[in-house]
Amino acid sequence: MTAHPLLEVRELSAGYGSTTVLRDVELRIDAGEVVVLLGPNGAGKTTLLRALTGSVRAHGDLRFAGASLARTTTDGRARLGIAHVPQGRGTFTDLTVEENLLVGGYTRRDREARADLDRWYDFFPRLGERRHQLAGSMSGGEQQMLAVARALMLRPRLLLLDEPSLGLAPVVTQALFRQLGRLSTETALTMLVVEQAAHLALGIASRAYTLTHGTISAPLSPQDLADQEELRRVYLGAAHAAGQAQTTTKGRTAWTSSSNGSSTA
C-alpha cells in the first residue's frame, strides 16, 4: 500500500470576504520534505499558509496524514501537529524567552513541554543565554529564532514558515537558514517555507512550487527552477541569475558566487 502524503491539497480556493485569492491550488508534501513556495508579493502565499491552518475562508480538499481537515478548527490542526511561524514573527514581547517557549507547548502536558526546553536551548544557544530576557528587547534575528523554537515546542509534524528572513540582515538570514537546514537533516521535520530569499530557501529544499496571481505551478525540483531562465529571473532576481552558479548535492541546490566561490546557502 502506498503511504499517504503528510499534506495533500486539492482544488483549494481561499480568500477574505467576497475576495478570492487562491484558485484551484494543488499541493503535496511527503513526510521529511522541505518544500519551498516562491512568488511575488500579493501572489497569495500567506493566504495559502493561513488556509492550511484554518484561519481564513477556504474550500477544497485538505488532508493531513490521509485524514480530512474539513471539520478541524485552527486549534485542532495545531493539536494534530501543524505549527505556523507567521510573517513578522509574532512573539509575545512582554513575556520572557522561556515563557514564550512554554506558550508554544500549550497543547501538551507542562512536564513534557519543560523537558523540551533544554533541547531547543541547545539547538539555539542564544535563546538559552537569554531565557529570562523579555522577548521584545531582543534583536530581530533572535526573535525569529524564538518564533521558530516556540513552534517546535509543539513537536510538530509539519512546520509552516512565512517569510522567516523578513526584516533580517543578510548575515542573520544566512545563519537562520543554516539552522533550518540542520533541523531538516537532524530531525527530518517536514517544512513548507514561504520565502523571498529564494537562493537560500532552495539550498535546503527538496522541491519547490511557484504561486502567481493565486494559481500554483506543478512541483519543481530546485534544479528544474535553476534551469529555467525566466523563473530564475523572476524568483531569484536578474542580478543573482547572471552572477551566480549552482551546484546540486543530494537533490538540493546550493548557490555560490561565480566571482569568489563563496556559498550563500
Q: How are the SSEs placed, and which strands pair?
A:
Layout: E1 7-16, E2 19-29, E3 34-38, H1 45-53, E4 57-64, E5 67-68, H2 74-80, E6 82-85, H3 97-104, H4 110-123, H5 125-129, H6 140-152, E7 158-162, H7 170-187, E8 190-194, H8 198-201, E9 207-212, E10 215-216, H9 222-227, H10 229-236, H11 238-243, E11 244-249, E12 252-257
Helix pairs in contact: 3-6
Q: What is the number of strand segments?
A: 12
Distance between the termini: 37 Å
Could you give the order of strands across the largest sheet? Answer: 6-7-8-3-9-10
Secondary structure: helix percent: 25-40%
Average pLDDT number: 84
Task: Summarize the structure in words.
By secondary structure, the protein is of the alpha/beta class. The protein contains 11 helices and 12 strands. The chain has a 6-stranded mixed sheet, with helices on both faces. The chain has a 4-stranded antiparallel sheet with strand order 2-1-4-5, covered by helices on one side. A two-stranded antiparallel ribbon has the order 11-12. Strand 1 and strand 2 form a beta hairpin. It starts with 6 loop residues before the first strand and ends in an 8-residue tail after the last strand.
